């Protein structure tokens, strides 16, 4: 064990020196964490659905039997993470992250196993059992704390509603009915209320009538401690009160609108244990079903915009809570509609435009990749939705929603708005901004369409100038960097090696029909059937389509699993069928795939040893994947903060000074005085550095696997090359 720590310290010593201020990972789980009963753990594992858990944090898009999304564990630019409902497993093909629902939350939130299981148990309302009675009681207290906060907020909401109907609430009720034009049905549906112009109205009621402690009300964000420390006072006074609910309909906070012009105009609850502004959307509890039905969500700025829209029958509207639209809020909305269609309808003033730009920034990559459809509605005459509905009605608003431009069209309009293109400086500013905007688009027909459109607008309708501008814009846009599929753990030259190995496998499959079943089973066994090169994926999909038409999807899946030898696959003349199909449907793809459909003479000679070729090509592909995983593990290993031997010795000495602690055993369970000091040091070192040692072991295991694959690959290719050399016409060919 001593040799292990010496090796470990030598590899990551530099990393340790650069991370002295970080808390050790070994201390992430507090010593007071309850020991959960196995029944609780098993219940959570059975109940927690991987798609549901991951989908709360990542926008997922269905792809066949699985889901794909942007990996949150690295700088992913395209969907690299696959989520399998059947296997209840997630895996990122770029960074190697993978596991079940519990592992996902542990890695994402940096929480302990117990904390994640408790969180999921609370979410799914599962009974929680622990192994120690005192800890069970503390846990119940922690859980009841949130319940107490929800109860206090619900009681406050009821009191505010009652005050709206009291004599003190006359002006507030008139404001809502006459000023806002809200009906009784709407007032009741949204639970609107009034906070009287008193310093302790709510405080006195909840304290004296309901028996709630002021400290609990402070934790709920309802009261504020006086500066002198002598008592509390109501946070909300002389304001129309709008309750904010979570997805389950539980009150988590309030928004208060001033009635006398006092500042701030809108006062929101502070962030509390149950209220985080960036995680919730106002009105989502009421809008979620309508969003699913309409298959789109409308996002506006204010509470009363949402209320006015719902009152007008547009019930798929929600609002951000005083902040820019966050990625978590966007994820929640995307879970509600299959088409992932979002329409931003923010105010037309400077603040509203900036808020829209910030929201676009959060989802830009998803929109560029086609993961969601983002549109921006800008109402005429600078009106907000509430004002527009009062003057024009719901029908006209719906028409504008249906014709709302895509986010990129809206951004182009923003770039050109107010600029005099006849002036050289403003023209150049517009071109620079547009090139930066269009440079984000991948090379495709969409980018060509936008280049043409922008050139026409810049030219002022002059056709000849438009053509020149389009060519100039295209050249400038080519210089913009486009980030495609993440290559974080890939080194130069590996893409070419991967392309050659994939081509070899596909060539074998096409021209060695008797081995097609074996090839499919081997690809599935090694998890290599998701080809990385785009035109190879297209070819493999076309092959699968032809084979499913002839054998059926069930039999083809049985071949993949190795339970069916797949002899019938040999009956298909795939090169001819694919050539005919691609000639009609995808002529450009056919050109790229001609070398696979028409092998050279030397390649045909190698077919005599098809299984050796198969072993070599699959080993080459798996080796690349393993090397990327090695780099990932090495990075993870080096990022761990190590506890030194000096720290372990100092801790043991401190523990040894307390007889009571010695009698009970150290906090780590490693301070048994019957063990010699060196053994205890090694044991403590291993315990405190368990994560780093785990990554170390995984790295060395993966390196061994790479060595094994190297041997496979070399042996196979040497045998194939030897067989070709023995054929008399090989060299001349």
Structure description:
By secondary structure, this protein is α+β, with helices and mostly antiparallel strands. 57% of the residues lie in helices and 8% in strands.
Keywords for this structure?
disordered C terminus, alpha+beta, 32 helices, 733 residues, five-stranded antiparallel beta sheet, globular, disordered N terminus, DNA primase DNAg catalytic core, N-terminal domain, single chain
In short:
With 733 residues, the chain is α+β, with helices and mostly antiparallel strands. It contains 32 helices and 15 strands.
- In CATH, the topology of one domain is named DNA primase DNAg catalytic core, N-terminal domain
Strand content: 5-15%
Work out the number of β strands. 15
Low-confidence stretches: 1-32, 481-487, 659-671, 728-733
Structural class: alpha+beta
In DSSP terms (H or I, runs of 4 or more residues), the helix count works out at: 32
> How does the major sheet shape up?
5 strands, antiparallel
In spatial order, strands of the major sheet run 1-2-3-4-5
Shape type: globular
The termini sit apart by 58 Å
Which CATH first-tier class of one domain would you pick? Alpha Beta
How much is the average pLDDT?
A: 79
Our Rg estimate from Cα atoms comes to 32 Å
| Helical residues, percent | 55-70%
Assign the CATH architecture of one domain: Alpha-Beta Complex
CATH superfamily of one domain: DNA primase, catalytic core, N-terminal domain
